[in-house]
# Entry
Amino acid sequence: MKDWEKNVRTVVPYVPGEQPKEKNIMKLNTNENPYPPAPGVAEVLETFDADRLRLYPDPLAADLTDALADFYHVDRNQVFAGVGSDDVLAMIFLTFFNSRKPVLFPDITYSFYDVWAEMLRIPYEQIPLDHDFFIIPEDYKKENGGIIFPNPNAPTGRLMELSQIEEIIQANPGVMVVVDEAYIDFGGVSALPLVDRYDNVIVVQTFSKSRSMAGSRIGYAISNPCVIKYLNDVKYSFNSYTMDSVTIALGVAAVKDKEYFEKTVQKIIQTREWTKEQLRALGFLFADSQSNFIFARHPKVPGPQLFQALKEEKIFVRRFGKPERIADYLRITIGTDEQMQKLVKFLKTYLMEQET
# Structure
């Protein structure tokens, strides 16, 4: 090892879902929305004045935070915008998780949490889900330096009731509780009402899933003004111009088209419920997902084998492999009706071949 390498901050990085370059594939592995963004987004791209790019963007992204504040009926100083929810969550880790006590999050959850904790040298403890993949509120009633969990959880798709989230918050008044709602628009009730009741709650959401804008990288947090100020102070100390002018304009256009947003979300929910019925009929086992994916396994076919068979058919899904108890599970993103029909048709044929 070279002398300078002794001072490198080493970390095992987060591994994103595969982004295949080949054509004619069915991409159901990264929970992207199968439908285009709101029509107003395309209009912004067509009419955006390129001369604006010679100027720095608004560091507050005020047009976007104002639009989000109007949409959620909160004050503009309650909204923090970032480059995707990953950026927002990383800022939260950096800002609020500075205790010597461990941050708590589930053992099966978004796999970026432990990466951030390791990179920032934050102590953490992964709390096991129960045998049905539920978060147990009682397990979070112990000494800690902060709590974070997705709702619905990823990759399981399990949804916590608002009363259970509030139970965790009430038991932890001295630390920040972060509810990561990347998938909340596909089922359940948001924890946003709890922001006004408790001063230690942050709700994080994203444009990547329900608003069809994974390629633009927009995430945001909603909390009380004091919390948002702390986040902005750290953000400006790190990089004051995190969101570009084009993205801000695109985000505003997406937020303003509520009708399109709700219509698209409903289409995905309907397709998800149809897909659940089909997978159950084929013998698949899975939690009752309230997200835009299904986390499923088949009792007669090992996960790695099924994953490879789908890939050879140019159907890409996600397999995690760790921990051991999810090694046979595949996370299947909900696509269009046509895509899910094609998936089910292949699975029927493949499973029949395995029985002969």
The first helix runs from residue 39 to 47. The CA atoms of residues 91 and 231 lie 7 Å apart.
